[in-house]
Each structure stands twice: as C-alpha cells, then as structure tokens.
Amino acid sequence: MASRFFGRYDHSLDSKGRVILPARFRADFDATVFVTAHDGRCLALWTPDEFDLQFEEIRRRQDLSTEDRNFARMWSATSSEEKIDAQGRVMIPARLREYAGLELDSPVLVTGSMDRIELWNPERWEEQIDPYQELLADPGRRTHPPTPSGGAPVEG
C-alpha cells in the first residue's frame, strides 16, 4: 500500500539541524528518509518506495528537453539520504535548510502532503497557502483536480 501522509504539526529544528517526525508518520518509514527540495521552497521527505517512484519518473523525463535534463541533474545532486534516529529525528543538510529558509532552533511546520511529508518555514507556508484557504470553505469552487507539478531544484 502506498504511503498516505496528512495532518499538520508544529515542531522545531534543533541546534544540530534535526527535526522530529511525528509518530504517525514514522510508521511508513524503515530507518531511511530521502530529503529533496520541493515546490514553494519547502523540503519533501520521501519513503524509499516513494523516492524510487519519483526518481524513475524524473529519469524517464530527463531526455525530453534541456529543462528536464537540468532539473534531473539538480534534483539528484541535491537529494539526500538520511537516517531516522532512535528518537525519530532526521538530520536536514545545511544546503537544504538554506533552500527552505529553515533556521537552527526555529519553528518548522511538518505537513502531510499525500505521498510525502513537507517541511516548511511557517512564514513561507502562510505566504504559499493563504490564497487557497477559501477552497476549504467552498470546495465546490474547484471543479477539477489541481495540476501536478514537480519539485524545484536548489539554486546555487
């Protein structure tokens, strides 16, 4: 069965750059998590199975265009395989923390996002999501599923 992540949790990044995964999310992981840059300048955390699906899709598309090839290069070069420690914490590499605007000893919003977990700078989350709050009040306004989009590469 595919992973299903949902919910919102307020956590923090500790002084060593680690974030604790909510207990309900940990059950879908073994001891490994894959961390990637993603849309909206957040980070995506993938189970090994979901990461493999993303990897294969990006690999399949890399020869379609220069843009797809460069995206594949950046995505793979900036992806990181991390271990989940005994306390359920994951180390977030400095280059990815910088990309997402996550600072040591600061709040981190941990959200379930269907097939992945996302880590957000809380202010960036509000900027990205606030325009869509009205959809929750009137879900009938959305007449078709949203268009899927790929992750964003780390710049620099």
Quick tags:
8 strands, two-stranded antiparallel ribbon, six-stranded antiparallel beta sheet, globular, disordered C terminus, 26% strand, 6 helices, 156 residues, alpha+beta
Q: What's the mean pLDDT score? A: 85
Would you report the number of β strands? 8
Helix-and-strand structural type: alpha+beta
> What is the N-to-C succession of helices and strands?
EEHEEHHEEHEEHH
- Helix tally? 6
Helix content: 25-40%
The stretches of 5 or more residues where confidence is low (pLDDT under 50) are 147-156
Give the distance, in angstroms, between the N- and C-terminal Cα atoms. Answer: 37 Å
- What is the radius of gyration? 16 Å
General shape: globular
Largest sheet: 6 strands, antiparallel
Order of strands, main sheet, comes to: 1-7-8-4-3-5
Oligomer: single chain
Work out the strand percent. Answer: 25-35%
Structural commentary:
The chain has about 160 residues and is an alpha+beta fold. The chain has a 6-stranded antiparallel β-sheet. A two-stranded antiparallel ribbon has the order 2-6. Strand 3 and strand 4 form a beta hairpin. It is globular and about 40 Å long.
Topology:
Layout (H helix, E strand, L loop, with lengths): L7 E6 L4 E3 L2 H4 L5 E7 L3 E5 L1 H14 L4 H13 L1 E4 L5 E3 L2 H7 L5 E8 L2 E5 L1 H8 L3 H5 L19
Antiparallel strand pairs: 1-7, 2-6, 3-4, 3-5, 4-8, 7-8
Helix pairs in contact: 2-3
